[in-house]
Design goal:
heterodimer, A: 626 residues, alpha/beta, Pyruvate-ferredoxin Oxidoreductase, domain 3, Rossmann fold, seven-stranded mixed β-sheet, six-stranded mixed β-sheet, 21 helices, 22 strands, globular, B: 342 residues, Pyrv_Fd/Flavodoxin_OxRdtase_N (chain A), Pyrv_flavodox_OxRed_cen (chain A)
């Protein structure tokens, strides 16, 4: 990514310098409001017309002890006038609200980058909590960066003094002071933020005024402190974007909207049964408010009840959906088998996080691909899709609803913690742009007067969907092997062979009803294909763009349909000399590709809880083609 | 349910599937009683759904000419919750056992009762695991010898009706597999009750736990040991020769012999009285008879009704404008070469 911040010219004639793209990271204590600051800075970027990507990175503890390194909460945003695909490899600007935030984040700051530090929090106690034996502001340990250290706490207290807040409350305005400074740095309009503060604190006008005063004071500080110091003002132009209506969207929001759209397009009401789990809960939160869209949400007593209630709703004729993260998906495993054998439509969303077990609840990973594709007892195939970015969740959710209802099968959607929480601008589609895929329930016995719930559509192998309440169509289904037509209990060897074959053939056949795979970037033959899935999309795309700019023959292939894989994928991959598969796991898609196509797919793996850096993938490409 | 519901016969509620329980199993009697009761409920077969988990009892749906879902172990209440919320018009019956409902599915049972979903829940209690060949269950009495407890179980058994009361059930009843006269009445009451109707049925597992309830189910023991509770009637048994009264000093129930026709001291069954129901459920068998019939019935808003009424209240006259939903929040419009906040 072209972060041009350090290449910009000196400020001239008091005009802000121009930058193409900038990465800023706000880091502070969990209680410092860094996520809020980042979120509002994101809004400001959106309103300035910048393209952007964000990376909220927060601890699993709700309020970790103050001042500790494990209580540090950070929010990174990459914004620019050019296409932004990731939250950025290295920040150009780091705002560190205390020693712990400095210690845990300074190493990722770009060499020569600017660190803005609140010295008001650099007392002996906080330094000790962060593990600093010596105050880093007093030795030369920060020499490779530009440091702007001053007492933001004192500045804030002075700014909000007229409002008579207590010391603790007054210091809570620090994040708005910092946001004000950031708004000045990047030449932003304060008015929308002031309006937001007024609405947020509409019940407490004093707090609204105090926060606005802090914001203004931070902005004014920038104006006056500019001369002579490392602080400079930059202007990032609006990105060139397709005309249209835009909003910021996180993966959690986008997935919820996509599910609502998907159910509507199928002509069904939606039932969403879920149990709270990080980082999947935002989907439930978002849907719980949408009752007027035919959505019933049910917070079940556990993960198993969540999926079972969704299966019950699908049986009764709604579109059942459930959502969780890896540990919860593990609990749902047996019920997934029930949905597979009863061939009911079901959408299961897995917002992946670091594993195994409880693992890293708030950190991202892609290590549930095996679980999705293979993780059940018996031969139990289902469809697996993967989202690659917050806005992409919308389209993938619709695709999941389409496949679930058209094939009468569970569909698992793999998203991840990064996508769930990250925000990006999204050009909002119009309802008219969608194609409906209405469901037909079966209400009549066959020509011979028989009720055969397992009779199939010859093309898709979809079984019939008969709603309870339909006269003359009473039948029984369940988890015991079904007779091939009536669905009655049947243990006969030939029947089990036939039913297992049919279940496999049905899912395999989905490959004929999905788009063929094409490269995102590059040729469909060549020296190297970088094959990704999920949230590595942005980093791979940028790395491949850079490599191609250097003249390397490399293509980017990004797979949405994980299972079954697109029908042409094997042939496509065989057209490249080498295949590189970057994944945030130990090589799961790589194994699937090797198994399916007997190709020498090479892994590039990272499981640090943080997304890939562009440079890491770029280096791997260089290594493969060097 | 509605005037159009056709009148049916018991045999029309039976499927053509061969019943696969062991000969002599108490489940046959329960199936027969249910099939006999259904025509009297005024509901249509197509609006009826039987949902079960895993275990001998859970084969039940295959034998009912209704909609049926044989789910997975312990999870029938969860599946039923989805069914009923998706279509509250359906008449949903859950069939479970002591293992399915109180061991692997205990958590779902708890929450079903707490939420008070409008379903009938028939818990076939035979105090043993049948389908897995005779291991002790959570309701097995201490000392039960089984393949997994060759020297006798050391665990204390769970009392299903006490569990139900603790979970907040609003309808608790108890009956016996062979009680062909009384069971249909209990089932009708369960069906009429809006909310979760918890019905424990003592069921004789002829293979692994035969006659475990004989002390009160056998003909010769029945009169002296069965107390059929009827709302508004004195709590009498042994052909009216004995009754239950409350000792006000110890706050305990005690058995009294009735002097000729004088029942003044005998407690009158008040099925809406939670404390009294708890007494009837908790009284130890032996010194006391087994309380049967509708022990507790005090209706409260059922879950699906609460969900629906909240939906109606919240939705009001809101129009589901999908385009507006997509554009909610922080949005802006880019026209050709122009940017403005909205």
């Amino acid at each position: 990514m072209a972060t041009a911040f350090n290449d910009v010219f000196e400020t001239q004639n008091n005009q802000p310098a121009e930058a193409e793209a900038v990465v800023v990271r706000f880091a502070g204590d969990s209680g410092d409001g860094m996520q809020l600051t980042g979120g509002q800075f994101t809004l400001s970027s959106a309103l300035s017309g910048n393209d952007f990507a964000t990376f909220p990175d927060f601890p699993a503890e709700i309020r970790a002890p103050q001042g500790t390194t494990f209580g540090v909460s950070a929010f990174q945003i990459n914004f620019g006038s050019v296409d932004i695909e990731t939250a950025g490899d290295e920040p150009d600007v780091l705002v560190a609200m205390n020693p712990a935030a400095l210690r845990t984040n300074i190493q990722s700051l770009k060499k020569g980058g600017l660190a803005i530090i609140d010295t008001g929090e650099f007392g002996a106690r906080n330094l000790a909590k962060a593990g600093y034996a010596v105050n880093p502001l007093t030795d030369d340990s920060l020499a490779q960066w530009q440091i702007l250290a001053f007492d933001i706490s004192a500045q804030t207290l002075a700014a909000v003094k007229p409002f008579g807040l207590g010391n603790k409350e007054a210091l809570r305005c620090k994040n708005m002071w910092t946001l004000g400074l950031a708004l000045w740095m990047f030449d932003r309009d304060r008015a929308p933020l002031i309006a937001w503060l007024q609405s947020k604190f509409s019940k407490n006008p004093v707090l609204a005024q105090a926060n606005a005063a802090a914001l203004n004071a931070g902005h004014a500080y920038g104006e006056t402190a500019e001369i002579g110091g490392p602080l400079k003002q930059y202007h990032v132009d609006a990105a060139v974007a397709e005309p249209g209506y835009y909003r910021t969207v996180t993966g959690g929001e986008s997935l919820a909207l996509g599910l609502v759209a998907g159910a509507k397009l199928a002509g069904l009401e939606m039932f969403f049964g879920s149990y709270p789990i990080t980082p999947a809960s935002p989907i439930l939160h978002n849907l719980a408010r949408l009752k007027e869209f035919g959505v019933t949400t049910f917070q079940a007593e556990d993960e198993i009840a969540a999926i079972c209630s969704a299966i019950g709703a699908s049986y009764a004729g709604q579109l059942g959906v459930t959502s969780s993260s890896g540990p919860g998906i593990a609990l749902k495993g047996e019920a997934l088998g029930l949905a597979i054998i009863t061939e009911l439509p079901l959408v299961i969303v897995n917002s992946q996080r670091g594993g195994p077990s409880t693992g890293l609840p708030t950190k991202t990973e892609q290590s549930d691909l095996y679980q999705a594709v293979y993780g059940r007892n018996g031969d139990a195939p289902l469809i697996v899709l993967a989202t690659r970015a917050p806005s992409d969740c919308f389209d993938v959710a619709i695709e999941a609803c389409r496949l679930a209802t058209q094939f009468m099968t569970p569909v698992m959607v793999l998203t991840d913690g990064y996508i769930a929480n990250a925000a990006e601008p999204w050009r909002v589609p119009d309802r008219a742009e969608f194609h409906a895929f209405p469901v037909d329930f079966d209400a009549e016995p066959d020509a011979d007067g028989r009720v055969l719930p397992y009779a199939r559509d010859p093309q898709t192998l979809r079984r019939k969907w008969i709603k309870p309440g339909t006269p003359g169509m009473m039948h029984r289904i369940g988890g015991i092997e079904k007779a091939i037509d009536t669905g009655h209990i049947n243990y006969e060897p030939a029947n089990h062979q036939a039913m297992t074959d049919i279940r496999k053939a049905k899912i395999d056949g989905v490959a004929n009803f999905i788009p063929p795979q094409a490269p995102e970037i590059g040729n469909s033959k060549g020296r190297l294909a970088v094959v990704g899935w999920g949230s590595t999309y942005g980093a791979i795309r940028k790395a491949v763009q850079r490599a191609r700019a250097k003249g390397l023959d490399v293509s980017h292939i990004h797979i949405r349909h994980i299972w079954p894989l697109p029908a042409n994928l094997g042939e496509l991959l065989r057209g490249y000399d080498k295949v590189l598969v970057p994944e945030m796991n130990t090589g799961q898609l790589k194994t699937v590709l090797r198994d399916q196509y007997l190709i020498d797919a090479r892994p590039l793996n990272k499981v640090s809880g943080h997304p890939f850096k562009i440079a890491e993938i770029e280096a791997a490409i260089d290594g493969m083609l060097g | 349910m509605n005037a159009m519901t056709p009148i049916t016969r018991p045999d029309e509620w039976a499927t053509d599937q061969e019943v696969r329980w062991c000969p002599g199993c108490g489940d046959y009697a329960i199936l027969k009683a249910v099939q006999r009761t259904m025509p009297d409920l005024g509901t249509a077969r197509e609006n009826t759904v039987f949902v079960s988990g895993i275990g001998c009892s859970s084969r039940f749906p295959y034998y009912m000419e209704t909609y049926g879902f044989h789910t997975i172990h312990g999870r029938a209440p969860a599946v039923a919750t989805g069914i009923k919320l998706a279509n509250p018009e359906l008449d949903v019956w859950i069939v479970t056992g002591d293992g399915d409902g109180l061991s692997i599915g205990g958590n779902h049972m708890l929450h079903l009762l707490r939420r008070n979903l409008d379903v009938q829940l028939l818990l076939f209690n035979n105090e043993i695991y049948g389908l897995t060949k005779g291991q002790y269950s959570p309701t097995s009495r201490t000392g039960t010898r089984s393949p997994t407890t060759p020297f006798g179980s050391v665990e204390r058994p769970l009392a299903p009706c006490a569990f139900a009361m603790g979970a907040g059930a609003r309808f608790v009843a108890r009956t016996i597999d062979t009680a062909q006269k009384n069971m249909p009445e209990v089932l009708k009451r369960a069906h009429a009750h809006k909310g979760t109707s918890f019905v424990e049925i003592f069921q004789n597992c002829i293979v692994y736990n035969a006659d475990v309830f004989a002390a009160f189910t056998e003909k010769k023991n029945a009169a002296d040991n069965q107390l059929w509770c009827v709302h508004g009637q004195p709590l009498l048994f042994a052909g009216g020769a004995k009754g239950l009264r409350l000792n006000h000093e110890t706050v305990e129930l005690e058995v009294v012999d009735i002097a000729v026709g004088d029942t003044t001291e005998v407690l009158i069954h008040d099925e809406t009285n939670r404390v009294q129901a708890q007494f009837l459920i908790d009284m130890p068998f032996g010194p006391f008879p087994m309380a049967l019939g509708v022990l507790y019935c005090d209706p409260a808003t059922s879950f699906e009704v609460a969900v629906e009424s909240q939906r109606n209240r919240v939705v009001g006259d809101k129009v589901a404008d999908f385009n507006a939903l997509l554009r909610k929040g922080q949005s802006w419009e880019i026209k050709a070469k122009e940017l403005r906040a909205v």
